[in-house]
Amino acid sequence: MPTAKRPVPHLPPFQRFLDAHRDDVLRYLIASLGRDDADDAFQETFIAALRAYPRLLPDSNLRGWVLTIAHRKALDVHRARGRNPIAVAQIGERADGATARAADADGPDHWERVRVLPARQREVLTLRYGADLTHAEIALALGCSEEAARRAAADGLKTLREELRDVPATA
Amino acid sequence: MSLPPPELRPGEAAVLAARTAARAADDGIAPIAYARVDSPVGSLVAVATARGLARIAYELENGGLDSILDDVALKLSPAIVEAPARLDPVRRELEEYFEGRRQGFDVALDWGLTTPGFRRRVLQECAQIPFGATSTYKQMAVAAGSPAAFRAAGGALGANPIPIVVPCHRVLASSGGLGGYTGGLERKRLLLSIEGGMLAV
């Protein structure tokens, strides 16, 4: 069968899209949720993306699009945790650094502190530094203004810096 | 203050991606699955829809995997995932064929990548040529209902999206010459020799 080179813009086969963005999506979800919940959210993200994929415009910003889906899936998990008092207790333990759980074998990191920031600050910092989205892309994903995204990022970083000052330098 | 992104473990994302692709294929969320299949005639790419096998491509002769899948995405749907398990029956039948243990293919076919009308009829007639037999472009044109259109029959067979399984290698020139082949004449000779070496060339 001849494989004519057509100039018609078309979406890449989904598998190529999945391979191109799998690392970014997983990094973002680990930043936002931790490793335990990232696996499921990863599958949910790409399954949801696949369902909508054939209707996308060929020149869409695919990276921004899939990370926006990942953001929504992460939000679902955070909301479920908010309804689940046991999960909240676990987050509290991790936040003060007193308890190292088996799931955190990689050691506590700055993303654990990000996860317990106020929701908007957490969202902006994970999208900005976990997914490397621009403030403009973040504003689109969150449905807020670019300025609001910028401000939330600055506030989040300020909180983290202050926390860092209060933590003894033994860790 | 810097916030470096989380570090991934080696292969971590690839494993999750493969699991996601397999689930998408199993649950029917991805209508199209593909797999690479090694064979004595080189690396093949097999593509299946819910209806059946739609494409077998000689990987090198068709510009590589990307080019082959781009073509399928354009003509059928971009919702394509790599799901080797979905192509297991095809892989098994091809193995048996190349080992000389199978003379016909039982997997269902999807004719969606063929052009409806005369060209599709030619390929469907071709699929009836039994193992070990040969036919001619002229006979294919007659069987498809347009005796004068033997050149067009040759064109349809040359664009066969499912070679080997739809045995266009069994169609020769009326002069007794080998004719052409989508995978190159070397492969045509090899396939015919597998089927009994009844070629006089």
UniProtKB/TrEMBL annotation, chain A:
> What Gene3D superfamilies does the record point to?
1.10.1740.10, Winged helix-like DNA-binding domain superfamily/Winged helix DNA-binding domain (1.10.10.10)
Q: Which InterPro entries match?
A: RNA_pol_sigma-70-like, RNA_pol_sigma-70_dom, RNA_pol_sigma70_r2, RNA_pol_sigma70_r4, RNA_pol_sigma_r2, RNA_pol_sigma_r3/r4-like, WH-like_DNA-bd_sf
Q: Where is the RNA polymerase sigma-70 region domain?
A: 19-83, 116-162
Q: Which UniProt keywords apply?
A: DNA-binding, Sigma factor, Transcription, Transcription regulation
- What's an example of a GO molecular-function annotation for this chain? sigma factor activity
Highest taxon in the source lineage? Bacteria
Keyword DNA-binding carried by entry:
yes
Q: Does the keyword Transcription regulation apply?
A: yes
BP GO annotations: DNA-templated transcription initiation
Q: Give the family from UniProt.
A: Belongs to the sigma-70 factor family. ECF subfamily.
The identity of this protein, by name, is: RNA polymerase sigma-54 factor RpoN
Q: Which organism is it from?
A: uncultured Solirubrobacteraceae bacterium
